[in-house]
Amino acid sequence: MQQQKNNDLSNPRGIILLLIAFLEGAAVMAAELLGAKMVAPFFGTTIYSWAAVLAVTLFGLAAGYYTGGWLTTKHAPKRILFVVLLLSGFFLLLMPFASNVIMKALLDASIITGLIISLLVFMFPPVFLFGMVSPAIIHALVHDMDDTGKMAGRVYAISTVGGVLNTLLLGFYIIPQYGIKATALVWGIIVLLMPLLIIRGKRRGKMALFILLFITVSVAAQWRSSEGAGQRMIIQYASEGLLGQVKVVDIEGMLLNDKSVKPRGLLVNNTWQTIYNRNDGKSLLDYVYFITPLLKNAPADNKDALLVGLGGGMLAREMLHAGYSLDVVEIDKRLEILARRYFDMKPGADIIIDDGRHYIEKIDKEYGVIVLDAFLGENAPWHLLTKECFSTIKSKLSNNGMLIIEFFGFTDGVEGRASRSIYKTLHKTGFEVTMIKTRKVPDGNENLIIVGTKSPFSLEGIHSDTLSYFKEAEVIHLSEYQYSFDDVSDAIILTDDLPALEIMLAKPAINWRKNLNEVLRDHLIEEHYPIYY
Fold first, then answer.
1. For 335, which of 19, 181, 216, 240 is 20 to 30 Å away at the CA?
2. In what order do the strands lie in the sheet with 244-251?
3. For 420-446, how does the pLDDT look when each residue is reduced to its tens digit (9 = 90+)?
4. Phi and psi for 404 in degrees, rounded to 5?
5. Do 356 and 331 form a contact (C-beta atoms < 8 A)?
6. Ordered alpha helix ranges (H), 297-333
7. Considering the entire predicted model, what is its pTM?
């Protein structure tokens, strides 16, 4: 009868252990999501970043499962749980501090090396310790070998449910609303309090005082330098959310090609999405000056337009000025607020909070112009650049409609294979393709404007006399910047079933992130601004 009672999960001891299993699963996912968010401002959100986060998480859990199972043969499971939960809570609470220190120390390392070492230092320890929890709980609950499989299944199932629920809660609400530091603080405290569930008497009070002291010291250490000096860059806004970290940054007056400018930038994970001059409200990104005349000379008689990707609203503003009735699809609701508050975007566009591909698939509307400007830093939205998506877009364009894609300027060699594949995929879908490169002499900063139409389209006679801030003449004749590929034999047809674009762009994206870090991220660090919030 005693054996039966010990295996009964309805008794208080069993319920407490299963509650710990549930919270442990939730805490694992908190560590993983926080780790992915923490590396983004330093190392980006490429496939390499996500692969490294997942690999370190799985490695940590595997090592923890093995070590936890071995320790249960040496020590009482209650003692193991007490020590492991206490240590894992400490490491989880310290993740923002530890990650900040190690990633700053690895600024000069290569992106891949810095990424992996950083994750091993600040994310591996709590995940490893969390992995030890389930074997200890199973050992504590099982007193009959016949029940081992059943009990293990229940513990891992409950732990997984905790992870699933917390992933949804953190991803959709907690991190976007409260940021990284507050989330790590709350979950660190939750885990630190869990050992109190398995100790009794005076020891519980003493342990509670010790935990409170540690939390106080940790919070003080992490928030002591939360404000930057603001000597050269002034952060007007910063928050964590769906796309990651978003900042609005003002840079003090500077000369850009002999012109006086006061830049304001919208940054997502420390990559420029929008830069404009506070003196006159003009964009400092040259691709805007190539797309604007295309909008004004689009052959379509349909003035309904769709813009996928709002950013700071520079293109949306130009499309409204060109007389279009504009729908804008933006996945992160913060950007509409920021575009209006900091980048002078006026009312007039219908802003839809949705994923671009999802919206394109579901709408029943015909557009004269569709613009894809949804590129997040070094990440291209591959699902918008497949044969299937292009076919859907073509069906939503009027007979004289125009598709405009803003893309990386890589066109030659291995780095240009992605652009060549987009070109080939558009042709396969039945589009006539015209391309514009925004620099006559490539310097690594050029963009590629890809235009798809249902019938041949000419750039002759199309020019822009809008004030611009790059080295070429202020009057831009688009035909002089037209570009064509000599050979696309190595290109592939991009499909939903073969998402190869990320792999093609992986190496160039790393180089792009490295160069950007040197001119932007490192300056923010030098001025003692927090890297995440």
1. 181
2. 233-241, 244-251, 263-268, 271-277
3. 999 999 999 999 999 999 887 776 667
4. -125, 125
5. yes
6. 314-321
7. 0.81
